[in-house]
Amino acid sequence: MSVETGAAHKDWEGSKLGMWIFLFTEIVLFGGLFLLYSAYRAKYTADFHSSGQELNTFIGIANTIILLTSSLTVAVSVTALQKGNRKLSSICLAATIALGAVFLINKYMEWSAEIGHGMYPNSPELLKHPDGVKLFFGLYYTMTGLHGVHVIAGMAVLAFMLMLVRRNRITSSDCVRLENAGLYWHLVDIIWIFLLPLFYLAA
After folding, report:
1. 178 and 81 in contact (C-beta within 8 Å)?
2. 58/200 Cα distance (integer angstroms)
3. Residue 180 · residue 62 · CB < 8 Å
4. How far, in whole angstroms, is CA 195 from its chain's centroid?
């Protein structure tokens, strides 16, 4: 019996370690993009500043508030399940997924407006601008687009966790999967907190 308990403990530790290693690779990925952004910004400071003024700061800040709220709801979901409150955990998970959807809708609207103005990679309108402006929007679409993919992936994972919680497949005594999903979602939020000043508050 003690052997089984030890094995379960090792599985728990391995799952946590695996998630932290995965999160580290994600940090390395975005960290490289942040360094690339910094290098180009130092070279084209004026162009990056003027380009940042073209973005919708209101939507950028609104999306930040949305994701910060979603981090709160996913944290409450994990805590609620740890305390055995499956109903509250499910409600908070559903709220987190809904907030992620609102974030994506706002991002879709923002991208649509930028594309409508002809400001997208290799567009005739963007090609008229200096190299710094082209680089800014190239990085903007690449980095926010990659972040959007991570939001979609996070929503899919949380939806799966919600199904498991509702079916009582994840319980207060075995909620490592939900905790790991919550860690991933927190990373998605933290990345956006860095993207906000880089693009929307560029000065």
Report:
1. yes
2. 9
3. no
4. 10
| 35 vs 143: CA distance, rounded Å | 12
Kindly give, in sequence order, each residue whose CB lies less than 8 Å from that of residue 187, ignoring residues fewer than 6 positions away.
23, 26, 27, 150
Structure tokens at 162: 């919600």
Query: Which band of pLDDT confidence, cut at 50, 70 and 90, is reported for residue 93?
Result: very high
Classify burial at 42, counting beta carbons within 10 Å of its beta carbon; exposed 0-12, middle 13-18, buried 19 or more.
exposed
Long-range contacts of 15-20 (CB under 8 A, 24+ apart): 15/176, 15/177, 15/180, 16/176, 16/179, 16/180, 19/180, 19/183, 19/184, 20/183
Residue 174 bridge partners (DSSP): 171
Distance in angstroms (rounded) separating the CA atoms of residues 199 and 56: 10
- 115 CB-near residues (< 8 Å, 6+ apart): 123
Quote the CA–CA distance of 70 and 68 in Å, as a whole number.
5
Structure tokens at 164: 């498991």
Provide the 8-state DSSP code for 44.
S
- For 31-82, how does the pLDDT look when each residue is reduced to its tens digit (9 = 90+)? 999 999 999 999 999 999 999 999 999 999 999 999 999 999 999 999 999 9
